[in-house]
C-alpha cells in the first residue's frame, strides 16, 4: 500500500472522541541482533558495553517509575517496579557475561541468547500468567537491546506526545500504562466494546477503535492516523479534505463538552424529580480523583484485580488497606463499592490453566478456592470501612451457595479483626454482581440474602448471548440491547425492589446513551459509569421523565431483535425527548 494514499479501516467504536497523530505500532519483540565473533582482546570492552547498556536501561526505568508514581499514582508504578526487578536479575547478568567470555560473541547477541534460553520454559508454559511475565521480560530485554544497538524506539510509556498506538491487542498490564498526555488515540485489530483494553481506554478518555482486523502490517511508525471513536473508523494518511470535513463536528462536540462542565456540581435528578445515584467505575487512584473532579456520587465499581496483575503476586492485606482507605476518605460520605478479585478469564492467576477460562475457575469461584487470598482482601476492605462508606460485592455469582459461602468468609474476617482489636463498620453492607443468567433468574431469592444488587451488563450480555466479548470474530453479535438481555435486567431490578433493596448497573450499558434511557425507564436506583462520562450522564438524567421512559421500555420489551429495540428507542426519543434527540445520541447510529 502506498503510504500517501488515504485508507479507511472500519472497526467497533469503543471509546468516543477524535484523535489525530503519528502512528506507533506496538511490537512485543525486537528483531534478532547480528552475531559477531570477538577477538579475546575485545572481551573487556564488550563486557563494559553490556554493563553500560544495563545501567542506562535501569536509569530509564527509575525515571519512569518516579514520573509515573508522581503523575499517575503508586498503583500504576507497580507495573514498572516489576520490570526494575527483572533488569537486576543476577542470573541473566552472570550468564550473559559468561557467554561473552566463553563464546566470544558480541554483547547484544550474547544477551539475546541468554534471555531466550531462560525465557523458553516460561514461553512453553500453558499458564497464562507466564505469558504476562513474558511481556515484562520482552519489554525489559528490548530496552537493554535498544541501548546496545543504538535504537531510539521507545516503549508505550515513552512515546512522543501526539501518538496513536496501533496494535493487534494490548495485555492488561500494557493497557494500564496508556498515558493520555502522550497517547491521543488507540487502534486495535482485535477486541470489542467491552474488552478490558477498551474499558481502560474509555476510562482514560482516549479515543479508540477495536476489531479492525489485520492492519499493523500496513502501518508504518510515524504514519499519520485519524481516529474516529464515535463511528469506529481508523483513517490512515487522512487527506486535507477529510480533515476539513471533520472540523465542524470536532468543534461542535468540543462546545458541547464544555457546556456539560457546569453539571459537575449539579445533582443527578430526573425531570420528574427522582434522584439517581450516579457513581464511577474505577481501577486506579488516578481514576478516583478524576471521578471526584467530574462530580461522581461515589464509586459504584472499584475493580481490584489490577493490584494483583501489577505486582505479579497477591497484594498484602496492608497494601490493599492503604489503597481502599485512600479512596474511601476521598468520597466520604458517598459509598465506595469494592468488587473482590475478578481474576480468571483474561486476568489470570498463577497456576491455573483452562481450555475455556471464561466459563471456568473465575472470580468468586476462584477466590472461594483461595481463602488465603480472599481473607486478606476481605479484612482489608473491612478495615477501610472504618474510614468511609465502604461496601463489598462479589463478582460472577451463579448460585445461592456461592453467596452464602462468601458471606461466611466475611463473618470470619470480622471475627479475625475483632480478635486483633481492629475497627470496622458494624453496618457493613454486602452485595453481589448479577452477571450470569442464573443470577438474574434467581434474583428474587438472591436479593433476600444481601443488601444490594449491581448488574454487570458486560458479562451478563456475554453469557446470555454466548458471545465472547473479546473475540473480534463475533464481537458484532455482542449487543446490550438484545431483548433477552433487557428481560434479565428488568427481572433483576424488579426482584431487588420487591425485596426492598436497591439495585444498580455498573456495566458499559450504563454508559450507553440509549441504555441510560432504558435503565431510567426500568427504575434502576444507581448507575456507575467511566469518570469522563459523568457530566454527560447527568445531562441525560436531568432531561428524562422516568414515567415516559417506562412507557418506551414497555414497548421495547415486546420486540424480538436488538435492531428493532434500537429503532424504537431512537424513534421514541425523537418524539418524546426531542431536546435529547440530536447531538448526544449520534454515536449510537450504526451500532
Strand percentage: 5-15%
Share in helix: 40-55%
CATH topology-level name of the largest domain: TIM Barrel
- Give the termini separation: 29 Å
The CATH homologous superfamily name of the largest domain equals: Phosphoenolpyruvate-binding domains
Q: Find the structural class using helix and strand composition.
A: alpha/beta
Largest sheet: 8 strands, mixed
Summarize model confidence as the mean pLDDT. Answer: 86
In total, how many domains does the architecture comprise?
Answer: 3
What is the number of strand segments? 16
Reported CATH architecture of the largest domain = Alpha-Beta Barrel
- State Rg: 25 Å
The largest beta-sheet arranges its strands as 1-8-7-3-4-5-6-2
Name the CATH class of the largest domain: Alpha Beta
Can you describe this structure?
The protein is built from 22 helices and 16 strands. The longest helix is centred in the first third of the chain and has 29 residues, at about 45-70. Helix 1 crosses helix 5 (about 130-150). The strands form two sheets. An eight-stranded mixed sheet has the order 1-8-7-3-4-5-6-2, covered by helices on one side. An eight-stranded parallel barrel has the order 9-10-11-12-13-14-15-16, surrounded by six helices. Residues about 580-590 have low confidence and may be disordered. It folds into three domains: about 5-25 and about 160-255, 3-Layer(bba) Sandwich (Glucose Oxidase, domain 1), CATH 3.50.30; about 40-150, Orthogonal Bundle (Enzyme I, Chain A, domain 2); about 270-590, Alpha-Beta Barrel (TIM Barrel), CATH 3.20.20. The chain is of the alpha/beta class. The radius of gyration is 25 Å and the shape is globular. It has helices at about 45-70, 75-85, 90-105, 105-125, 130-150, 170-175, 195-205, 240-260, 285-295, 305-310, 315-330, 365, 370-385, 400-420, 435-440, 445, 455-465, 485-500, 515-520, 535-540, 545-555, 560-575; strands at about 5-10, 10-15, 20-25, 165, 185-190, 210, 225-230, 235, 275-280, 300, 335-340, 390-395, 430-435, 450-455, 500-505, 525-530.
Amino acid at each position: 500500500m502506498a503510504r500517501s494514499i488515504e485508507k479507511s479501516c472500519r472497526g467497533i467504536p469503543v471509546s468516543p472522541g477524535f484523535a489525530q497523530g503519528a502512528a506507533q505500532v506496538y511490537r512485543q519483540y525486537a528483531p534478532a541482533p547480528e552475531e559477531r565473533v570477538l577477538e579475546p582482546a575485545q572481551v573487556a570492552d564488550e563486557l563494559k558495553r553490556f554493563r553500560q547498556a544495563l545501567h542506562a536501561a535501569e536509569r530509564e526505568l527509575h525515571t519512569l517509575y518516579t514520573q509515573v508514581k508522581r503523575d499517575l499514582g503508586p498503583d500504576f508504578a507497580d507495573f514498572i517496579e516489576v520490570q526494575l526487578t527483572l533488569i537486576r536479575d543476577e542470573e541473566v547478568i552472570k550468564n550473559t557475561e559468561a557467554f561473552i567470555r566463553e563464546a566470544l560473541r558480541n554483547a547484544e547477541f550474547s544477551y539475546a541468547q541468554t534471555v531466550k534460553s531462560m525465557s523458553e520454559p516460561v514461553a512453553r508454559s500453558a499458564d497464562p500468567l507466564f505469558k504476562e511475565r513474558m511481556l515484562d521480560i520482552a519489554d525489559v530485554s528490548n530496552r537493554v537491546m535498544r541501548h546496545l544497538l543504538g535504537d531510539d524506539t521507545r516503549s508505550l510509556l515513552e512515546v512522543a506526545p501526539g501518538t496513536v498506538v496501533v496494535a493487534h491487542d494490548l495485555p492488561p498490564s500494557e493497557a494500564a500504562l496508556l498515558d493520555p498526555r502522550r497517547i491521543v488515540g488507540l487502534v486495535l485489530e482485535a477486541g470489542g466494546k467491552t474488552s478490558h483494553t477498551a474499558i481502560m481506554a474509555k476510562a482514560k478518555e482516549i479515543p479508540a477503535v477495536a476489531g479492525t482486523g489485520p492492519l499493523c502490517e500496513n502501518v508504518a511508525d510515524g504514519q499519520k492516523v485519524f481516529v474516529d471513536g464515535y463511528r469506529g473508523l481508523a483513517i490512515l494518511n487522512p487527506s486535507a479534505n477529510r480533515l476539513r470535513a471533520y472540523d465542524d463536528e470536532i468543534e461542535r462536540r468540543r462546545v458541547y463538552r464544555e457546556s456539560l462542565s457546569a453539571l459537575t456540581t449539579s445533582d443527578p435528578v430526573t425531570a420528574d424529580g427522582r434522584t439517581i445515584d450516579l457513581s464511577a467505575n474505577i481501577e486506579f487512584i488516578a481514576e478516583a480523583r478524576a471521578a471526584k473532579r467530574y462530580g461522581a456520587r461515589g464509586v459504584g465499581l472499584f475493580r481490584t484485580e489490577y493490584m494483583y496483575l501489577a505486582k505479579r503476586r497477591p497484594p498484602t492485606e496492608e497494601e490493599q488497606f492503604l489503597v481502599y482507605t485512600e479512596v474511601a476518605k476521598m468520597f466520604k460520605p458517598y459509598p465506595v463499592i469494592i468488587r473482590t478479585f475478578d481474576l480468571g478469564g483474561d486476568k489470570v492467576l498463577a497456576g491455573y490453566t483452562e481450555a475455556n477460562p471464561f466459563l471456568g475457575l473465575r472470580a468468586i469461584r476462584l477466590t472461594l478456592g483461595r481463602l488465603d487470598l480472599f481473607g486478606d482482601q476481605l479484612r482489608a476492605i473491612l478495615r477501610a470501612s472504618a474510614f468511609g462508606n465502604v461496601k463489598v460485592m462479589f463478582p460472577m455469582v451463579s448460585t445461592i451457595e456461592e453467596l452464602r459461602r462468601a458471606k461466611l468468609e466475611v463473618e470470619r474476617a470480622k471475627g479475625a479483626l475483632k480478635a486483633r482489636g481492629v475497627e470496622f463498620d458494624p453496618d457493613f453492607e454486602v452485595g453481589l454482581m448479577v452477571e450470569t443468567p442464573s443470577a438474574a433468574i434467581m434474583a428474587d431469592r438472591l436479593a433476600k440474602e444481601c443488601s444490594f444488587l449491581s448488574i454487570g451488563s458486560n458479562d451478563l450480555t456475554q453469557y446470555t448471548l454466548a458471545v465472547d466479548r473479546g473475540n473480534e470474530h463475533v464481537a458484532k453479535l455482542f449487543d446490550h440491547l438484545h431483548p433477552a438481555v433487557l428481560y434479565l435486567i428488568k427481572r433483576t431490578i424488579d426482584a431487588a425492589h420487591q425485596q426492598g433493596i436497591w439495585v444498580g448497573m455498573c456495566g458499559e450499558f450504563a454508559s450507553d446513551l440509549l441504555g441510560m434511557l432504558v435503565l431510567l425507564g426500568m427504575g434502576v436506583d444507581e448507575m456507575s459509569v467511566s469518570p469522563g462520562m459523568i457530566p454527560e450522564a447527568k445531562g441525560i438524567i436531568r432531561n428524562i421523565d422516568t414515567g415516559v421512559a417506562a412507557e418506551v421500555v414497555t414497548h421495547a420489551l415486546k420486540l424480538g431483535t436488538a435492531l428493532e429495540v434500537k429503532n424504537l428507542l431512537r424513534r421514541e426519543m425523537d418524539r418524546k425527548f426531542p431536546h435529547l434527540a440530536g447531538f448526544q445520541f449520534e454515536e449510537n447510529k450504526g451500532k
